[in-house]
């Protein structure tokens, strides 16, 4: 018996060391970045987080088996979280694509598999860290990671066009920083020593500075609203119910807020309200789609990670326009309410809301009954409100999800904290006693194996294999050598259990482009087309309601036709695009491609009708007018072509700024013999290509036709200046003048 006690003590110390240090390292997840990975701001972070959680959870399982006091305790908060995860599982099975719901995509990696890790993280936090000192260390490490992130941002070493430091997006970064700002507030108000005050106060200054200078309007506004809410809550719960005093505090806070905003002048203040409202337009368009998707499947939704199908099914043709955002692909509604409703229906929203209801009610109870814990409980209450408010304009990624579940663990500690949990006897801690065959002798080693072996398999197949696949995908995309090299990388990238939706799409696009280029051998192209088409068929089979794979598959078939001249490939492309239109009847892209096929067949009338359909869907989109103009040009209807080029220009299509497009219009006017228009067009294109002797010669000819001899002479002399070899022909032209 003494031997077992000694072994358990040694085991407890080892497991606690793994759990403690593993948890600290987990908090540095937002700093992880690996440019050699597919989606370098997302994939490495998520795999890092999941791998560490698996190691920590394995240590926890062993600890909980042999030391009963570490076994999880059931409370309302843990029950609400388990219910929410259970609803995610249920709606994934009932949804339209379980594989995508489980694995998510490389761009997001927020599927069921990641949520299981977040749940495991919460269980470890609430079962092991039961002392005030434990949580002070955890919050300090999190704050330190946030400060390091802030320093990275302040140095200006951005490798992402969206900013956001190592998180890669300023909105996601701001959400992450919000958590650490409130953690720093807690330490600043709770810790009395000067060293802690310096650490937490300095951290607050840096974190708030970076937060305010971000472009995350929702996070910034929520932050200031949160401060007001905190002041109001403090005055209420501290017993100071003097309304006059509450009002003066609110006015003072408002003055401070305006002053700070005026000094720092963050981007959203400088851009003004008009710019902020303009940014909201795309959100409103996407929210409309989310609402329609919810109404179609109101109870259990479409399944997690399937908003992309809803977006394309209820596609708004205006999204191509700048006033609607100009983004044509959305896999999130950028609103936690609509995202949850679409993914999991009303059942999911209720289960998600229950986490906040339990947390808020518990924290309010602590604020009322335990004044000594007022600051942490009130600040966590405000943090929940701030987090939920800013999530009305954005969505969660691994960095914010990890912080959210960390916060839930801390909230559980605040609500269910006892005076000294470690005074409990092991028997009191758990009525469940494991058989001696498991905890003693050879059974102990078997128990270790039962925990460790699955953990190793999970690490490899759930994390290492997807990471290798992500690296191979990058090599496939970036390889500029022979297509054969990309084929090899692509085959390696397919070697993963994770959803391969994006990998197939990336390869199909590369092969599509290769079909329009020169230099690849026909045999290699044939091999690439066959492989890409085979895999895109798999994507469509797994995602039968998703418009996007149909679109890229149709493009792939069309490129194959251009190389092989196999009419069957053209027929298949046409069938695919027709199916795409069924799935997204208001999306212009399929109409454009279907019209292109009709042009290839020489059916100009059908091509024109498809382009006209695209125009009818959204008359303000100049690209559709331009495509129809070029169709009229090919069909020889030049007057109609000119009319459509003017329509395109009127609604914002800048064909004058594109030399290739400009040459197309010049060809039409040349055929029509309109030298007045040609002079203007030649002048435009010569601004871009001033050393093109042929263009100067054509301009000289147009001037000559209009009888403007001097201008014709000047243009002709420019031809000789650029290319003296053309002097004989130019001299003859000048004599004719």
- The rough form would be described as elongated
Number of strands: 0
Strand content: under 5%
Query: pLDDT below 50 for ≥5 consecutive residues: which ranges?
Result: 419-431
Largest sheet: none
Broad structural category: mainly alpha
Portion of residues within helices: over 70%
Put simply, the count of helices is 32
- Cα-based radius of gyration, to the nearest Å: 32 Å
Distance between the termini: 116 Å
- What value does the average pLDDT take? 87
Give a quick precis of the structure.
By secondary structure, the chain is an all-alpha fold. It is 75% helix and 0% strand. It contains 32 helices and no strands.
Structure description:
The chain is an all-alpha fold. Among the domains are: 67-433, no CATH class; 654-737, Tetratricopeptide repeat domain (Serine Threonine Protein Phosphatase 5, Tetratricopeptide repeat, Alpha Horseshoe), CATH 1.25.40.10. It has 32 helices and no strands. The longest helix has 37 residues, at 442-478. The termini are far apart. The model is unreliable at 419-431 (pLDDT under 50).
């Amino acid at each position: 018996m003494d031997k077992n006690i000694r072994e358990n003590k040694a085991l407890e110390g080892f497991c606690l060391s793994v759990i403690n240090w593993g948890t600290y390292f987990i908090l540095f997840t937002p700093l992880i970045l690996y440019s050699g990975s597919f989606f370098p701001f997302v994939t490495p972070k998520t795999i890092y987080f999941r791998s560490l959680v698996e190691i920590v959870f394995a240590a926890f399982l062993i600890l909980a088996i042999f030391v009963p006091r570490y076994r999880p305790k059931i409370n309302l908060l843990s029950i609400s979280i388990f219910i929410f995860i259970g609803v995610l599982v249920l709606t994934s099975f009932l949804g339209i694509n379980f594989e995508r719901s489980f694995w998510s995509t490389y761009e997001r990696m927020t599927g069921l598999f990641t949520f299981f890790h977040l749940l495991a993280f919460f269980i470890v936090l609430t079962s092991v860290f039961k002392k005030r000192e434990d949580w002070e260390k955890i919050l300090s490490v999190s704050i330190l990671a946030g400060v390091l992130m802030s320093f990275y941002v302040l140095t200006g070493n951005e490798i992402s066009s969206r900013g956001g430091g190592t998180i890669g997006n300023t909105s996601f970064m701001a959400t992450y920083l919000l958590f650490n700002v409130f953690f720093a507030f807690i330490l600043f108000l709770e810790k009395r020593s000067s060293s802690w005050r310096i650490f937490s106060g300095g951290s607050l200054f840096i974190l708030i500075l970076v937060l305010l200078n971000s472009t995350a309007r929702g996070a910034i506004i929520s932050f200031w609203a949160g401060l007001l809410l905190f002041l109001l809550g403090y005055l209420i719960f501290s017993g100071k119910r003097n309304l006059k005093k509450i009002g003066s505090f609110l006015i003072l806070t408002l003055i401070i807020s305006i002053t700070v905003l005026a000094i720092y002048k963050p981007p959203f203040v400088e851009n003004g309200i008009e710019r902020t409202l303009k940014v909201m337009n795309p959100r409103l368009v996407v929210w409309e789609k989310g609402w329609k998707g919810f109404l179609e499947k109101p109870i259990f939704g479409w399944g997690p990670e399937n908003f992309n199908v809803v977006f394309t099914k209820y596609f708004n043709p205006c999204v191509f326009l700048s006033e609607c955002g100009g983004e044509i692909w959305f896999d999130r509604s950028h609103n936690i309410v609509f995202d949850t409703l679409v993914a999991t229906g009303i059942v999911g929203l209720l289960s998600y809301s229950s986490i906040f209801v339990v947390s808020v009610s518990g924290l309010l109870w602590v604020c009322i009954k335990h004044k000594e814990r007022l600051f942490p409980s009130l600040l966590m209450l405000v943090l929940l409100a701030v987090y939920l408010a800013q999530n009305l304009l954005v969505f969660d990624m691994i960095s914010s999800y990890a912080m959210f579940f960390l916060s839930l663990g801390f909230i559980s500690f605040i609500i269910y904290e006892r005076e000294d949990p470690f005074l409990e006897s092991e028997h009191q801690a758990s009525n469940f006693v494991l058989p001696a065959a498991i905890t003693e002798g050879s059974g102990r080693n078997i128990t270790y194996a039962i925990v460790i072996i699955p953990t190793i398999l999970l690490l490899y197949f759930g994390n290492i294999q997807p990471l290798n696949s992500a690296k191979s995908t990058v090599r496939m995309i970036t390889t500029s050598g022979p297509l054969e090299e990309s084929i090899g990388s692509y085959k390696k990238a397919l070697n993963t259990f994770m959803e391969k939706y994006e990998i197939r799409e990336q390869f199909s696009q590369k092969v599509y482009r290769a079909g329009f280029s020169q230099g690849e051998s026909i045999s290699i192209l044939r091999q690439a087309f066959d492989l890409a088409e085979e895999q895109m068929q798999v994507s469509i089979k797994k995602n039968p309601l998703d418009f996007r794979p149909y679109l890229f598959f149709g493009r792939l078939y069309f490129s194959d036709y251009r190389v092989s001249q196999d009419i069957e490939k053209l027929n298949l492309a046409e069938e695919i695009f027709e199916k795409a239109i069924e799935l997204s009847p208001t999306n212009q892209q399929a109409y454009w491609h279907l019209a292109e096929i009709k042009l290839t067949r020489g059916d100009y009338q059908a091509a024109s009708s498809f382009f006209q359909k695209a125009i009818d869907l959204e008359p303000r989109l100049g690209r559709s007018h331009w495509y129809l103009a070029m169709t009229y040009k090919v069909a020889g209807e030049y007057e109609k072509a000119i009319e459509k080029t003017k329509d395109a220009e009127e609604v914002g299509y800048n064909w004058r700024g594109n030399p290739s497009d400009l040459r197309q219009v010049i060809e039409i006017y040349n055929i029509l013999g309109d030298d007045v228009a040609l002079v203007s067009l030649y002048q435009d294109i010569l601004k871009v290509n001033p050393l093109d002797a042929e263009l100067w010669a054509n301009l000289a000819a147009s001037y000559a036709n209009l009888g403007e001899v001097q201008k014709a002479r000047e243009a002709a002399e420019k031809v000789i200046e650029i290319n003296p070899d053309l002097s004989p022909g130019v001299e003859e032209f000048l004599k004719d003048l």
